[in-house]
Amino acid sequence: MAATGMTQALAPLQPIDHQRAVFADGLALDCGAVVAPLAVAYRTYGKLNAARSNAVLVCHALTGDQYVAETHPLTGKPGWWEAVVGPGKPIDTDRYFVVCANVLGGCMGSSGPPEQMTDSEGRPLGRPWGTDFPNVTIRDMVRAQKRLVDHLGIPRLLAVVGGSMGGMQVLEWAATYPDMVVAAAPIATATYHSAQNIAFHEVGRAAVHGDPDWKGGRYWEDGRIPEKGLSVARMVAHITYLSEAALGRKFGRRLRGASALTFLEDVFEVESYLRYQGSTFVRRFDANSYLTITRAMDYFDLAAEHGGEVAAAFRGSATRFLVASFSSDWLFPTEESRALVRALNAAAANVSFVEIATDKGHDAFLLDEPVFHRALGGFLRGVAAKVGA
Amino acid sequence: MPDAPPDIRFVAKNMRLDLRLIAEMVAPGARVLDIGCGDGQLIEHLIREKGADARGIEIDMAEATEAVAAGLPVIHGDADADLAHYPDGAFDYVLLSRTLQAVERPREVLRQMLRIGRHAIVSFPNFGHWQLRWQLLVTGRMPDNETWDRKWYETPNIHPCTIRDFFALCEMEGYVVERWLAVDDKGLRSPWKRSPWLANLFGEQGLFLLRKG
């Protein structure tokens, strides 16, 4: 299934005309570099009310993007959070003005490795950034979103909501701009990326680095992509998004096209599924973006940004929090959410917390989980009622 | 509550008796933590009727989820593990209604309550009630009635106590009993409130307002 050279080699991502806000003065990053101009690609759903009090910012996860609740322009598939965002859904686009931006470092139109590289004066250099794109942090991503939110004329966000890496951004929003965040819902996330999670990311990066087509990050030069490496990275990551129970339920030990082992060319269904996941991913995601964003997640440690104490990030905060975790999520286990809740309690913050019982693993936050949806929807309605949005 | 809309009066009317009595003890605008808050009935009442900043902890996930879905600030957690993480004096009142007998370390939970709150309000079913004494005396079997309705081998109530036991604990720990009352099983305030001895015999529940000595 892997491309064997010749004509099968995949070309870089199709260029798409994403909706963007461009800020000529750029953005100064935590690493000291400046990205100028700064482009933030985004989508909005619903209408901003006259009081500008009903805006909900959705933050996407590692391989998500701004196409939350509409057909994806590249894949033709439904938006990644249509279970949660839309008319009558928990994040109700009939009530709220929903904004989602492609993260800084991403590959769907925001400034990132596949975009045109610029010099320190902001002049285009006629080549993509590639691996020369500076290291970004979750806080940098949030600062870029802040520029967009200001640009859209939103003085305060009714809520910032996101799962996984999106949840990290939610926490960073609440810590960095507490007065702008009425409510924050960090879902299936943690205040730092664990050693185990960094380890899995490193396997993925090693797979990309080890693909000869990666060419030290300069694969754009000959119009190819490190398809094999990126595909393996996705396969490894995908396992971490599921659970043993979910894999067992979906695939068990079933073979593809055979009822019993033949010891010839047996393929377990789970293998075939993972290969498919890998092969479709490389058609929609840029390898260098994958490296940049996984690094940003690995860098994330909210306590380290606040003198070694998570509670210090939220002391005196008037933001209302909803923390939610999923029982079979071993990538961002409930214990990490509980530690966040305890830190919020230590900061005397107003917090709700539920652990949703499910066997669907980390991915559960994206899927049909009615109890989670009821909790999130109720939380947002409660907050909206309180501020009259 | 003359200004309350009809649906709220309905809620208050149907609220468990001990919750209503607890609500009466809470000053308007107070910061309140309700431990074992269930689906958040009391919290909602305190927020809407008393303008309180009321929050809750509930050990039962389904109940906690109901509360959160109702927009209430409730966390899934338990008294034994979670109180230690709140800062000193974070609340004006920390409430524990009908839960003390079910926690693992009641004495430590009370200590935490009076560390994180200026006042503690505690209610518990009185194990000294005459019916329980009578059942044990006559049948020689563990009590089995409306309040103590689970068999000894499956009851969550691992630390039952009597009203007099609770007075003794408060004395030992140096807590000041600011108010106390006993209620009978019909849910009315009992006439024997002057006498802990009589309350311990006829009171179905004890309700205490404490502060540190």
Describe what you observe in this structure:
The complex is a heterodimer of chains A (389) and B (213). Chain A is of the alpha/beta class and 389 residues long. Chain A has 2 domains: 20-195 and 304-387, Rossmann fold (3-Layer(aba) Sandwich), CATH 3.40.50.1820; 197-296, Rna Polymerase Sigma Factor, Chain: A (Orthogonal Bundle), CATH 1.10.1740.110. Helix content of chain A is 32%, strand content 17%. Chain A is built from 10 helices and 14 strands. In chain A, the strands form 4 sheets. Chain A has an 8-stranded mixed beta sheet, with helices on both faces. The longest helix of chain A is centred in the C-terminal third of the chain and has 18 residues, at 370-387. By secondary structure, chain B is an alpha/beta fold. Chain B has one domain: Vaccinia Virus protein VP39 (Rossmann fold, 3-Layer(aba) Sandwich), CATH 3.40.50. Chain B has helices at 6-14, 17-25, 41-50, 61-69, 79-82, 106-116, 130-139, 163-173, 196-202; strands spanning 31-35, 53-58, 74-76, 91-97, 117-125, 175-183, 205-212. Chain B has a 7-stranded mixed beta sheet, with helices on both faces. In chain B, α6 (106-116) links the parallel β4 (91-97) and β5. The chains are: A alpha/beta (389), B alpha/beta (213). The A-B interface holds A 320, 322-323, 338, 341-343, 345-346, 348, 350-357, 371, 374-375, 377-379, 381-383, 385 and B 53, 55, 61, 64-65, 67-77, 82, 85-87, 90.
